[in-house]
Amino acid sequence: MKISIITVGKLKEKYLKQGIDEYLKRLSAYAKVEIIEVADEKAPEHLSEAEMEEVKRKEGERILSHLSEDTYIITLEISSRMLNSEQLAAKIDELGTYGKSKLAFIIGGSLGLSKEVQNRSDLALSFSKMTFPHQLMRLILLEQIYRAYRINRGEPYHK
User: Fold this and answer.
1) pLDDT confidence of residue 44
2) Most buried residue, 3, 20, 69, 80, by CB count within 10 Å?
3) 129 marked as binding residue
């Protein structure tokens, strides 16, 4: 399976890069995983609703340009469905079993995702009702994908 993590903004924190590199290395035994960073829009503190939508629309266009029609898309959204680790593992296994060889997880920018990206999503997934920095979500997501593969293979790690 080819897994893309499409995320808005550049990762600057060295400690997060080290953790991400570690999980990318671990995942290489199970799947081809790539991280695609799209540019974030400059957004001052106080934006009108219309200006916020415009920022999300521009970021959304950049995200959508990396997706093909045959990609199964999972968007990370706070107000959506939560899965436990076993359920995420089962979903990834199900997608592979039924011929979905391309999977993309999408992490939006600080304002969230555009309606266009949300409408293209096959599954909206929440990791928590809490808000996390989108840079940290990359590491959390990679760890959960790695955990999912270990669960699906019956390999020790999960508990």
Assistant:
1) 78
2) 3
3) yes
Closest CA to 138 of 96, 109, 101, 95: 109
For domain 2-152, give the CATH number: 3.40.1280.10
Backbone angles phi, psi at 46, to 5 degrees: -105, 100
Does the annotation flag 130 for ligand binding? yes
pLDDT of residue 153: 95
92, two tokens: 């990834």
Please tell me whether 71 is known to bind a ligand: no
Q: Where are the domains of the chain?
A: 2-152
Q: What is the pTM of this model?
A: 0.94
pLDDT at 158: 62
Please tell me whether 11 is known to bind a ligand: no
76 is in an annotated binding site: yes
Q: What is the 8-class DSSP label of residue 5?
A: E
Q: How far apart are CA 136 and CA 13, in angstroms?
A: 9
| pLDDT band, very low/low/confident/very high, at 143 (cuts 50, 70, 90) | very high
Phi, psi of 148 (to 5 degrees): -60, -45
Length of the chain in terms of residues written = 159
